[in-house]
User: What shape does this take?
Amino acid sequence: MRLVILGGGESGVGTAILGKKKGYEVFVSDFGKIKGNYKEVLIINGIAWEEEKHTEDLILNADVVMKSPGIPDKSPIVKKLIEKGIPIVSEIEFAAPFTDSTIIGITGSNGKTTTTMLTHHLLKSAGLNVGLGGNIGKSFAWQIADNKYDSYVLELSSFQLDGIVNFKPHIAIITNISPDHLDRYDYKYENYIDAKFRITMNQTEDDYLIYDSDDEAINEWFKTHTTKAKLIPFSLTKIFSEGAYIKNNKMEIKINQEEFTMDTEHIALEGKHNMKNAMAATSVAKLMQIRKATIRESLSNFQGVEHRLEKVLKIQNVQYINDSKATNVNATFFALDSMNTPTVWIVGGVDKGNDYNELMSLVREKVKAIICLGVDNKKIIDAFGNVVDMMIEVTNMNDAVKMAQRLSEKGDTVLLSPACASFDLFENYEDRGIQFKQAVKSL
Assistant: This one.
């Protein structure tokens, strides 16, 4: 069996190692450059590879192709594979049959990284032998080839779910759905929603789907679709006989005739959206039979995720917060919503078709000044030019942070929450967040 892998990054190399171990003839092809450390791994394992090209003769003879999630279906080589009827799968689809571990899959437009990390933290703190993978950390396929985890917590993007056929998590979570990546879904929101719900398409009556019952897109989907999985909703406003909710400042969870309660003030994560992430993760912990005392302790000591509402420093009584991971409007909505002091907001980057109107009431209420950090800031200026007193454009992070310091007073917050992708001025959102933190530390 010939396995061809498009993309020589983390998921590609991980799949190559697993494929080799399972007796496939493996070939890795990357249209860009393959990083040195990955090249080394391929060479040591005797895996054939090429970079900066796709040689059709070596690709179109595949029995199966694993395509890295970043490669769009519109790319010429993918079109040719589709024409020839060669099956194209994602890493999780390829890898899952080689493990009988319990899989917890987490998707959503926002909150999925925090929920994934928190779920992993809850299970690991309870002493479970649990791996973390998917969209973060080490490749799922690589972990299956190397380690023997009894369960995996996987963060899954819609691109990864596009490439599944039989993959099914025992427990699935959909944190929420809001318009994102529409450029990859023919600008049709319903296509993107359907991609997210692929996480439950193969689930049976023995599996679970945990979801945000306050989410409009999720509720709309349920009007015309069904899943066999047992449903466990969570909500900030409703109360369930089976599910998770907030009542009298307590998080309450009822699953399989068992109850768990905890005062919300003892939960380390702050903000309404994080209460939802905590409800989702705790629902998994309850399904995995984790002891209540362990869950309480883990929820109170969780450190959060880098670049997601990360408190950097307080300088002259101004709090600097790094929310570089907010690459869409919905994520920035959560960030602004959780501000309770006057805010200097650093925003901008590559716009993915953003509608800034959703932020209007929050900006009026909370934002005193806006610093635009992008190559093209026209949409932001058009949206908020008349709403805030101060609006400034900069083209690098140092200027942004120095400007923010000038515009802020004691008791204010400086918030980097770009609502955009970072590729105009930075390598990725991590690079943007690291530069922000460095600039703040050198004030």
